[in-house]
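Entry for the shared binder. Reason: the reviewer on the internal report wants the predicted structure included alongside the sequence.
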Amino acid sequence: MKYALLARFLLLNLAYSAGLALAWERGWVVPFFDNLISYAIGGLYVVGLCIAFVQAGKTSRALNEAKAGSGALLEGFRAAVARAGDLRASMALEKRLESRAGVLIQICELLVILGLLGTAIGFWLTFQSLDLMSVDTAEGLKALAGAIEVGFGLAMTTTIAGIVAAMALSTVQQMLETGTSKLIAAVLDG
């Protein structure tokens, strides 16, 4: 099948989108976008998806060309083999193609780090408010409960958003790595 990697990418993200739509419909997503860190996580995730889409398209096209025995990648590899020999050319090809995944790995790590940053800020806000509250009155207890809810809410929503986004993007990244491995094998065999 032509563009099988791109088709799998689109199918996987369609499933993720359906899950997100279901979560949105049930009211689970709305609380996640009540702070800037969650917006940063969402934005970074979208950037990662765009990068992954471009990479899936390039890899899928190159894989189709390599299987057909033509294409710029295969011709470049053949020229490199003629100049440098099989081993050096194949190592250079592998390094070049596998480096594509590096950006997505870094984005996944940043998503988790942003989630943990939100956790730390949420806890800090909670503990900051504990020193300022007067708990000897009913109003003081209500204010304390409200401050704890806000701080822990920030901590939990950013952690969950960061981890879920990283897991989804990590799955996409792993799929691209598999496609890249197939591309390397097709070029080396071609």
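Summary line for the report: The mean pLDDT is 82.
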